[in-house]
Amino acid sequence: MLDYLLLFIPAAFLVISVLISIKAFEKGKSAKTTVLTQICSFCAVFALCMVCPIVANAADVATATQAAASNSAGLGYIAAGISTGLSCIGGGIAVGGSAPAAIGATSEDPKNFGKSIIFVALGEGCALYGMLISIMIISSL
Predict the structure, then answer these.
(1) What DSSP assignment string belongs to 46-100?
(2) Which of 42, 70, 65, 67 is nearest to 55 (CA)?
(3) Residue 81, C-beta contacts closer than 8 angstroms, at least 6 positions apart
(4) Would you state the torsion angle of the CA atoms of residues 104, 107, 110, 112, taken in this order, to the nearest 10 degrees?
(5) How do the domains of the chain map onto residue ranges?
(6) What is the second-level CATH architecture of the domain 61-141?
(7) Does the pLDDT of residue 67 top 60, yes or no?
């Protein structure tokens, strides 16, 4: 029961920070300020969730080896998630910029389709490489 409560607290903190940011944006704060608030609250919750289990497991010397193994597996899953997430964000930014340009170039001259679609595919390739790295990380755990 306590485990579920400990999972609920960070999730509730993140939801509350989202609501506070939305209210601040509606009251006239800039979008940059609200996004920075969200990033800072996420980093705080992430640090809290990373430090608390490590400190709790370090107190028990008998399970130190088992705790280290579970922490390394957990960090491997986090690394896989980060590699997929960041590569997909980068791929989305790349495709978001290159796809409209490719459509515009193709509408002006249909011969440019082959040249312009390469840039769109390169942006999508970044996300695929991130997913491939995630699969390699998870398979090594």
Answers:
(1) HHHHHHHHHHHHHT-STTHHHHHHHHHHHHHHHHHHHHHHHHHHHHHHHHHHHHH
(2) 67
(3) 134
(4) -10
(5) 1-59, 61-141
(6) Up-down Bundle (1.20)
(7) no
Rounded distance, CA 37 to CA 43, Å?
10
| Range of lowest pLDDT (28-32, 53-57, 90-94, 108-112) | 53-57
H and E: helices and strands count for the chain: 4, 0
pTM for the full model?
0.53
> Which whole number is the average pLDDT over 88-96?
87
Two structure tokens written together for 99: 């796809």
Contact between residue 81 and residue 134 where contact means Cβ atoms under 8 Å apart: yes
